[in-house]
Specification:
about 210 residues; Arc Repressor Mutant, subunit A; 5-stranded parallel sheet; 5 strands; about 10% strand; elongated
Length: about 210
Amino acid sequence: MSEPPPVVYVIDDDASVRHALRSLLRSVGLDAEVFGTPREFLQSQRADAPSCLILDVRLPGKSGLEFQLELLKADIRLPIIFVTAHGDIPMSVRAMKAGAVEFLTKPFRDQDLLDAIHVALERDRARRQREAELAVLRERFESLTAREREVLPRVVAGLLNKQIAIEIGTSETTVKVHRSQLMRKMGADSVADLVRMVEKMRIPPKVA
């Protein structure tokens, strides 16, 4: 299944800037959606595709930095590139600490913006890949029986079948069956594989 084409969102209250950025992005084959306010952006239907956001720091009402924090609170994890005509070092530090990819001061070179967009889209692709892998793991975990979920963290903790059997009150033979089944259902080729999966899902040790 091929990846959907990336989308670059732009929020800037200056219509001429929006037009210029859209033209630049389209000239290099990038899909661009532009908005005059954060509200317009939030009300839009965003594509299920690798994306990033070019955000002006100075906006009517809410600043770009405040909107960055609002997006984080809403768990909208879009990589952000800030652009501003009135930036200073404390402002850029604040933006970068909150996860911004870049902080560009107008006028900036087109190539600097395009380079930042490339970094931002790669970051979002990586995030989407991690989330897709995690969703698959969680689906596999949900397919385990209650008993298999009891056995799993104990296998990961390195306990022997005999020790697991004593802990959960069953026979060693039964533990072997559960162990084999859960390895198959999780798609793990080894205990090391299983450990990595559990770490990704952040399952607490020895908790069913």
